[in-house]
């Protein structure tokens, strides 16, 4: 289910002295199975953008096409399309309200009018997807869980709707390192399963290096660059100019090359940098061939 954004512009308080252009003539296309990272400085328009992708906001001008259908068309069934595009806000655990984990996750499927058997199957699927054991957690209150577990319950509630596209706005914000890694591992596995296209907003370049297959770079409401993480992180001057950093592996790679280490210049993941260093060390130990 591809998403195509055509010349999207959004103005807040349009027609008033407080009018602000949050998005300015943005166009891009997302294909099935991609993991899209959306990056930009605070206030760049990232959250405004993702709220257009499931119809929470309407464009001032331009179009958002879901599988070729205009999301804001006069005869579009927006409710049906929104079921296909799950949006997880920042700190989604604040929206939990049911007395048990299972009931909270089941809320969306119930509103879809599904049978009890189908709802139960979806709850079990969603809990497995976020690494929560059904027998251990289904009947517990979500408010007894850790912050990271509560967030996974909230994400499971969206997954239980079985969307074709999952959009997450800063999914690891405020979590400790363990909770953050669990969320990232879960998203990694979910994308690898091929069951859903993922879009993620994040300030963490290391998280984007780990997960994204393509990046959209937003600055002052404009799409200033798009490409693979390797292509984008190679443009460190551009990133710095718009208030963004690059992954730690990029900094370390540059420093090692400055010190004379013969490693590729475009490494951006910690694992690949480690492999390059080990290969170089192995070659040095072997010495010159006789």
Short characterization:
With 290 residues, this protein is of the alpha/beta class. It has helices at residues 46-52, 78-84, 101-111, 116-129, 134-137, 147-159, 177-192, 205-211, 229-233, 236-241, 248-258, 270-286, and strands spanning 3-12, 20-30, 35-40, 61-66, 69-70, 85-88, 165-169, 197-201, 214-219, 222-227. The protein has 2 domains: 3-246, P-loop containing nucleotide triphosphate hydrolases (Rossmann fold, 3-Layer(aba) Sandwich), CATH 3.40.50.300; 247-290, no CATH class.
Q: Helix and strand layout, with pairings?
A:
Blueprint: E1 3-12, E2 20-30, E3 35-40, H1 46-52, E4 61-66, E5 69-70, H2 78-84, E6 85-88, H3 101-111, H4 116-129, H5 134-137, H6 147-159, E7 165-169, H7 177-192, E8 197-201, H8 205-211, E9 214-219, E10 222-227, H9 229-233, H10 236-241, H11 248-258, H12 270-286
Parallel strand pairs: 3-8, 3-9, 6-7, 7-8
Antiparallel strand pairs: 1-2, 1-4, 4-5, 9-10
The number of E-state strands comes to: 10
Kindly state the mean pLDDT as a whole number? 92
CATH homologous superfamily (4th level) name of the largest domain:
P-loop containing nucleotide triphosphate hydrolases
Question: Roughly how many Å is the radius of gyration?
Answer: 21 Å
- Described by the principal axes of the CA atoms, the overall outline is globular
Largest sheet: number of strands, sense, barrel closure: 6 strands, mixed
CATH class of the largest domain: Alpha Beta
- Structural class call reads alpha/beta
User: Residue ranges: pLDDT <50 for 5 or more in a row?
Assistant: none
Total individual domains:
2
| Quaternary organisation of the protein chains | single chain
Q: What spatial order of strands do you see in the largest sheet?
A: 6-7-8-3-9-10
What amount of the residues lies in strands?
Answer: 15-25%
- Rounded to the nearest angstrom, the distance between the terminal CA atoms is 58 Å
Question: Given the structure, what is the number of helices?
Answer: 12
Order of helices and strands: EEEHEEHEHHHHEHEHEEHHHH
CATH architecture of the largest domain: 3-Layer(aba) Sandwich
CATH topology type of the largest domain: Rossmann fold
Helix content, binned percent: 40-55%
């Amino acid at each position: 289910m591809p998403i195509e954004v055509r010349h999207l512009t959004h103005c807040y308080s349009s027609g008033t002295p407080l009018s602000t252009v949050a998005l300015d003539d943005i166009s891009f296309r997302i294909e099935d199975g991609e993991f899209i990272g959306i990056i930009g400085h605070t206030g760049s328009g990232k959250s405004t953008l993702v709220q257009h992708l499931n119809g929470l906001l309407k464009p001032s001008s331009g179009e958002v096409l879901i599988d070729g259908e205009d999301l804001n068309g006069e005869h579009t069934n927006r409710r049906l399309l929104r079921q296909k595009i799950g949006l997880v806000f920042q700190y989604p655990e604040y929206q939990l309200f049911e007395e048990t984990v299972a009931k909270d996750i089941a809320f969306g499927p119930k509103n879809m009018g599904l049978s009890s058997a189908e709802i139960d199957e979806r709850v079990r699927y969603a809990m497995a997807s976020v690494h929560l054991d059904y027998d251990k957690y289904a009947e517990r209150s979500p408010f007894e869980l850790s912050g990271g577990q509560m967030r996974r319950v909230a994400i499971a509630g969206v997954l239980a709707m079985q969307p074709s596209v999952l959009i997450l706005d800063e999914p690891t914000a405020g979590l400790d390192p363990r909770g953050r890694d669990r969320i990232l591992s879960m998203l990694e596995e979910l994308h690898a399963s091929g069951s859903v296209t993922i879009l993620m907003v994040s300030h963490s370049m290391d998280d984007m290096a780990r997960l994204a297959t393509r990046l959209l770079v937003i600055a002052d409401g404009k799409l200033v660059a798009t490409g693979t993480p390797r292509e984008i992180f190679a443009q460190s001057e551009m990133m710095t100019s718009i208030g963004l950093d690059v992954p730690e592996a990029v900094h370390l790679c540059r420093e090692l090359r400055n010190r004379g280490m013969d490693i590729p210049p475009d490494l951006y993941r910690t694992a690949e940098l480690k492999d390059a260093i080990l290969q170089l060390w192995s070659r040095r130990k072997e010495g010159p061939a006789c």
